């Protein structure tokens, strides 16, 4: 790979969230690393590829002087902020993206469409299009990410044309794309899909999402989809493919070598001597199946009284989208269930559940992954789930077992190396946990080696480079098959 730098094509990444989020602390603006799968995967690309990253800084900055300061500090990291008024950002991010679109993409029913957030969604996509079209050079590759910006490819193509510029546009979705019937629930579905179809190349995480998208284009827009991996719509040919997103495994193995992490691992091992550790790391989101996880763990404790004080679940629930009521309600519900589980199963010797509702530093995260015998991931739907990859990267020594919901995108690739289960079935989850804790060492090793091979072969760098290479090829030789 290397055509991007060889040809001196500029690469522009666009996502709603920048890799750095800005906050105001005691009146001063400060930035810190953003969390989430998108930032993890794109950050893994920075080692090999140079790009500018456009996005929303996460906060309103009114004063022009402050804006300049924030802009300067972000630009030092190649991050270009697109400033938005707080009410517009709120309606776009919380209102439409997270309260309406996100649940539809994850097969949640009962979503109520509302015109005001939809208009804000359109407006933000327009503001992004204006900013990027203004700053992009003709010939640049523009790679747009995720459901917050589905209208952007169409708006951007338009605005670039008005300015006499021509750029290749790629789009990657980091969530599932639901089956057509479900997608039809959304009254503005056509606009969103037409927006995406103005791209030259569209990437999905799994074959299932890709096929759902192709089927939806055929049934909803009457687009031509007979040629594999291509969609013909309004005289344009769009390439569609699966690109397996991953992590930078070295970042995790390097962290485990650090003396302070080694020390932390030693102290955690000492603390949990004679106790099997199960770890879970999830954003606090409905799709992660956290309610189901706690209830399944409760069932497991009920089923196995002989394991009292011998198993602990350490669950990190990273705060997420805290301005959305559904997320606030979920947090309250989880606290109640966690309290009940410990009320029922705790003894003077210890509590079986450690529920942490906060973000933990990276080195603490890798130490936790490393000492855990099992990683339990219970997504009810999930674009990929990179935590599964990260756990594997930290398990070189222990060969820990991954217990993975069949509804995580990662299950499309990792089922052979993990223990799969249905997250809504408490009995299945309880059995899966028990089997994981009791897997014989040879089978554990075989499963682990399968997973390690997959994680090392499908890195974030490979994902990004492959996508960019295909996008670049697409504009050099548009007729070529995808
Ligand atoms: P999602 O994209 O839905 O958040 P993923 O499992 O794909 O789910 O990705 C979550 C990412 O967030 C992982 O890379 C994980 O390491 C990262 N993460 C978890 N906790 C933190 C944290 N405290 N700070 C930064 N990143 C975090
Ligand atoms: O996985 C989907 C996703 O939207 C990612 O794009 C993002 O990294 C993650 O969820 C966290 O979302 P947010 O940007 O709302 O914190």
From TrEMBL:
Any one of the GO CC terms: cytosol
Recorded catalytic activity of this chain's protein: D-glucose 6-phosphate + UDP-alpha-D-glucose = alpha,alpha-trehalose 6-phosphate + UDP + H(+)
Gene3D superfamilies on file: Glycogen Phosphorylase B
Uppermost EC category: transferase
GO MF: alpha,alpha-trehalose-phosphate synthase (UDP-forming) activity; trehalose-phosphatase activity
GO-annotated biological processes: cellular response to heat; trehalose biosynthetic process
Keywords: Glycosyltransferase, Transferase
InterPro entries registered for this protein in UniProt: Glyco_trans_20
UniProt-listed CDD domains: GT20_TPS
Keyword Transferase listed: yes
Its EC number(s): 2.4.1.15
Protein name per UniProt: alpha,alpha-trehalose-phosphate synthase (UDP-forming)
Species name: Penicillium hordei
Lineage: Eukaryota, Fungi, Dikarya, Ascomycota, Pezizomycotina
């Amino acid at each position: 790979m290397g055509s991007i730098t060889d040809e001196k094509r500029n690469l522009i990444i666009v996502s709603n969230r920048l890799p750095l989020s800005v906050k105001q602390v005691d009146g001063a603006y400060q930035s810190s690393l953003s969390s989430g799968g998108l930032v993890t995967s794109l950050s893994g690309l920075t080692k090999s590829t140079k790009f500018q990253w456009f996005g929303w800084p996460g906060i309103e900055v009114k004063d022009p002087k402050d804006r300049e300061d924030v802009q300067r500090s972000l630009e030092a990291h190649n991050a270009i902020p697109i400033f938005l008024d707080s009410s517009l950002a709120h309606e776009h991010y919380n209102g439409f993206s997270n309260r309406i679109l996100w649940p539809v993409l994850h097969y949640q029913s009962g979503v109520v469409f509302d015109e005001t957030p939809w208009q804000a969604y359109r407006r933000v996509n327009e503001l992004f299009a204006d900013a990027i079209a203004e700053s992009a050079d003709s010939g640049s590759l523009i790679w747009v990410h995720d459901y917050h910006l589905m209208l952007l490819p169409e708006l951007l193509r338009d605005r670039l044309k008005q300015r006499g510029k021509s750029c290749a546009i790629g789009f990657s979705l980091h969530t599932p794309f639901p089956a057509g019937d479900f997608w039809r629930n959304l009254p503005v579905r056509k606009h969103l899909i037409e927006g995406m179809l103005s791209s030259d190349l569209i990437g999905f995480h799994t074959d299932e999402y890709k096929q759902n998208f192709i089927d939806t284009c055929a049934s909803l827009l009457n687009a031509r989809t007979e040629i594999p991996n291509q969609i013909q719509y309004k005289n344009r040919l769009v390439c569609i493919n699966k690109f397996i997103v991953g992590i930078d495994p070295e970042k995790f193995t390097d962290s485990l070598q650090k003396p302070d992490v080694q020390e932390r691992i030693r102290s955690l091992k000492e603390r949990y001597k004679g106790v099997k550790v199960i770890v879970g790391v999830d954003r606090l989101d409905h799709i992660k199946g956290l309610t189901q996880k706690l209830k399944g763990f409760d069932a497991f404790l009920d089923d196995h009284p002989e394991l009292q004080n011998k198993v602990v679940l350490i669950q990190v629930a990273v705060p997420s989208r805290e301005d959305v009521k559904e997320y606030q309600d979920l947090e309250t519900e989880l606290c109640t269930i966690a309290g009940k589980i410990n009320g029922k199963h705790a003894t003077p010797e210890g509590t079986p559940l450690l529920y942490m509702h906060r973000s933990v530093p990276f080195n603490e995260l890798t130490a936790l992954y490393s000492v855990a015998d099992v990683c339990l991931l219970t997504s009810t739907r999930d674009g990929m789930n990179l935590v599964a990859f990260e756990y594997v990267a930290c398990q070189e020594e222990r060969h820990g077992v991954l217990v993975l919901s069949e509804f995580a995108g990662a299950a499309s690739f990792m089922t052979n190396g993990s223990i799969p289960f249905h997250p809504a079935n408490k009995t299945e989850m309880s059995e899966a946990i028990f089997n994981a804790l009791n897997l014989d060492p040879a089978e554990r090793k075989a499963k682990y080696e399968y997973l390690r091979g997959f994680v090392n072969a499908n890195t974030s760098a490979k994902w990004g480079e492959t996508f960019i290479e295909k996008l670049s090829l697409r504009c050099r030789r548009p007729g070529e098959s995808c």
